[in-house]
Amino acid sequence: MVSRRKSRSRSPVSAKSPRGKSPARGKSPGRGKSPARGKSPARGKSPARGKSPARSATPSRGRSVSPPAVETTKPVKSRGRPRTSPQKSPARGKSPARGKSPARTKSPARAKSPGRPKSPARAKKSPAAIKELSADVVDKPLSESPVKSPSKKAEIFAEKPETSGLRRSGRSTRSAEDENAKQVQALIDSTKRGKKQATGFLTNFGGVVTIIFSCAFFLVLPILCTKTSCTLSSYKTVSLNWRSYIDRDAILIYLGFVALQLLLALLPIGQQVDGPPMKGGRHKIRTNGFFAAVSTLVALGALYYFQAPLDVVYQKFIPICIAALGFGGLLSIVLYFTGGRAAVSTLNPAGNTGSFVPDLLRGRQIAPVWWGRVNVKFVFHRVTLLALLVLNVILLLKKVDAIKQGSALGVIFACGAQIWYALDYCYCEEQWLHSFEYQRSGTGFHFIAGCAVWPFLPSVLSKFVVDHNVELSWYVYGAILIVHNFGWVIYRASSSQKAEFRKNPLKPSLSHLETIPTSQGKKLLVSGWFGWIRHPNYLGVFIMHLCWVALCGNTHILPLFFPLLTLLIFVEHSLRVDLNSKERYGAAWERYCGRVKKRLIPGVF
């Protein structure tokens, strides 16, 4: 009895069958011939089976053969398996993940492993695993899975400016922003390349010669075309006294006129429009040029009514012209130094070479703005046209007595044509914002001094008609009027078409025009006025200038100097515009040039 109790305490299995008499222990065919146990690749290759701490801790592995069959169920239960026997589970022999998963050696808690719910086979064949997976996903915070969280994705996209821009804006806005970014980058790169250009003595000397030649070129016609004669031989009678050219009253008259126009430009009267997209961005511009023109005419009428000495402008015509040229030179120098502190995006690539004289000529900025309100380029260009208006009105008032008698028809046509041209610009001055001169040309000595002295060149023609009392036949005036109006129609219609297309290419009234798309997202007009020649607006202005010269008659040859000068300027501008457009648009511009062969004059150039 004592021995049997001891054996029961040692082995609970031996209580049912004694060791020596049990035939099933040595002859069990099921234990040795089980195909599932011997052929299972997962049992023999699993690294987890050999490294399990539970198998090394059992005391019954070395004493009997039977305990392994009983002990094999323990790791299955500890791993969170369902209550199924190992023999009935088909997943043990077919799962390739059990033998290859490195996570089994590192994580003893199989039920809490986040990797196990990811297996689609296990989720389909064990409902308990599905419940555990859903519980883990619901209880797990979003911060633990940054890739799957929508809010995290939104934060990632918000940190990337290029991605957020694509999501916020449309296709057209995106292309405009990309183009602006490319233009600014190209501006910076070209500015850096420009500073590497030659800045030696020859460059500065050539710039000084250009300035002197330009000033002399602009002053030839006003100085040689006098009341007595208007020929090249008039240089013999030219005064050499500097007091004949520099006059204090003339300087004050011109400065007072510029101050008046600046004051009118600052008044909050007139429409305020968005400027065109430029390298420095958009800016607000008040287009009250017609208001300024009407106000100037009212002021002149008041001065004439109160018998102010308006004839002093006629008497000091050349000193006022020189004062305007000097003012333009000083303003260009001021713009040169203020351009050194301007933002990089507003700079002119051609005017930032590092050499003083070339940069002074070309201008360091495209369209400088002072105090956030004064667009120097836009306002000074308006001053040019209003100066032309004032000069012709004063010349017209000088012949008011002859006009009343009906004997000054030539003066009416000569002054009236230029007054109409100035008023037309002031009424449509917004269209000039879309021109090459405003958007691409720098604000330097060439532009400022040219605008300052230009109104005196066509005014010389009106002054010539007044001084020499030129009168032509009525049918000649009729023909000149028809041709002049034809040129004005070409100029105004082409400028309006271009401006409207730049503002809104999808406008219904422009839908019939044929265009060529460019890589910058813009389009080139290839029909309409710009399907005829490349620069029809230049041609229209040139035709009007020819008519102004025709009103001077054929008695003197020097007035022909003015249309020749205009032609040279327009040829240079057209070549510069074509070169710039070729650099910007590339193949699209070459296609346009293949369609439209001529630049300025149909069939000629």
From TrEMBL:
Segments crossing the lipid bilayer:
201-224, 251-269, 289-305, 317-337, 379-397, 403-423, 444-466, 472-491, 532-551
Q: Is Lyase a UniProt keyword of this protein?
A: no
Q: Which GO terms describe its molecular function?
A: Delta14-sterol reductase activity; DNA binding
Q: Which InterPro entries match?
A: ERG24_DHCR-like
- Chief localisation class: nucleus
Q: Where is the composition biased (Basic and acidic residues)?
A: 133-142, 152-162
Q: Does the keyword Nuclease apply?
A: no
Q: How does it sit in the membrane?
A: Multi-pass membrane protein
One of its GO biological process terms is:
cholesterol biosynthetic process
> Which GO cellular component term is one of those annotated?
endoplasmic reticulum membrane
Q: Where in the cell is it found?
A: Nucleus inner membrane
Residue spans of biased composition, Basic residues class: 18-48, 95-125
Q: Where is this region: Disordered?
A: 1-182
Keywords assigned: DNA-binding, Membrane, Nucleus, Phosphoprotein, Receptor, Transmembrane, Transmembrane helix
Give the matching Pfam families: ERG4_ERG24 (PF01222)
Known PANTHER family for this protein?
A: DELTA(14)-STEROL REDUCTASE, DELTA(14)-STEROL REDUCTASE LBR
Q: Which family does it belong to?
A: Belongs to the ERG4/ERG24 family.
Which named protein is this?
Answer: Lamin-B receptor
Originating species? Megalurothrips usitatus
